[in-house]
C-alpha cells in the first residue's frame, strides 16, 4: 500500500528559522509543510565581536515560538542561513552579518532547544528544498532552485535527493561565471551571474547607461515600474539580467540534466519582466534535445519557501540530507 504522506512525518512541529542580514524569522511548521505561527525581529547591526548581540535577538524568536508551541511535541530545529555556512562544523559566516564569523550557530541553538535534532543549510538550499517538497518543483527528478534578489543563490536536487556538497554550499549558482571577461564580482572573480543579474547590479548597470539621470529615486522598485511602463533602458536591464540567468541555467542543465528550474527572490516577484527574457534566452541557449525540455517556473511558495525547506531538513532527511 502506498504511504499517503509520501514518507512525511505525521505529527509534531518543526521550529524553522530563516536567518538573513535584514531580519531573523522563525515559524512553527506542521509535518505536512504548512507554516503556522511566526516570529520576526530585525537583525541587529552589530559589528565584529557582536555575535552574542545577534544571537540574543534570535533567542527572542526561539523563545516566542517555543511559547507558541505550547508544549506540542517538537520534531527538531531546521535552520536556513545566509551564507557561507559550514555544515561540517555547524558554523555560519553570513556576508551580510559581520558579527558572525565562524559563529557556532548549531551548537548555540542546540543548547537553547535541547533534546531535539538541529540542522543547518544555506538559505538558497532551503529555498530549493521548499519548492521541491511543496512548491513549483514537486515531483521533479532534478531541479535547480535559484534565488534572484540582492544576491543570487540557489540549491540543487539531483535524482530526487538534495545535493549539498561536503560543506553545504553546493548549488550556489550565483557565482557561476557567465561572462569570463565580465565585471568584477564581490567574490573576487569576474562575470558571475550575481554581478550581472542581482537587483542592485541591475540598477547600477541601468544608471551607468543613463537611466534616471535627474537623480530621482532609482531602486529596483523604480526600475521595475519603469520597465512595466515601457522605458527602453529599464527593459534592457531586465533583458540583460534574464540572459545572465538563462546562461547559468543552461550551464547547470548541461552538467546535471535538469528537468525543472524554480526562480524566487525579489526579482522573480516582477513575474514576466524577468521570466520572459529568461525563457526567450533559454530558447536560444539550450539547444540540445535534453536541454530544450527544461521548464522554468516562478516560486509557488514565495517568502515561505525558505522556512518550509528548513522544516523539510527535519521531516524528510531521507530526501534532503545535510552533512550535520
Ligand atoms: Zn562571484
Q: What strand order characterises the main sheet?
A: 3-2-1-4-7
Distance between the amino and carboxyl termini = 32 Å
- Going by helix content, strand content and strand pairing, the class is alpha/beta
Count, helices: 10
Q: What fraction of residues sit in β-strands? A: 15-25%
Bound molecules: zinc ion
**Uncertain stretches:** none
Radius of gyration computed on alpha carbons? 20 Å
Let me know the number of strands: 12
The main β sheet shows up as: 5 strands, mixed
Shape: globular
Overall mean pLDDT stands at 94
Which features would summarize this protein structure in a list?
5-stranded mixed β-sheet; 36% helix; single chain; 12 strands; alpha/beta; 324 residues; binds zinc ion
Description:
With 324 residues, the protein is of the alpha/beta class. The chain is globular, with a radius of gyration of 20 Å. The strands form 3 sheets. It has a 5-stranded mixed beta sheet with strand order 3-2-1-4-7, with helices on both faces. The chain has helices spanning 51-69, 105-112, 123-134, 193-197, 199-208, 220-228, 232-256, 272-285, 289-292, 305-315, and strands at residues 13-19, 23-29, 35-42, 74-81, 85-86, 91-92, 118-122, 143-148, 152-158, 161-163, 260-264, 295-298. The two termini are 32 Å apart. Bound molecules: zinc ion. The site of zinc ion has 6 residues, from loops.
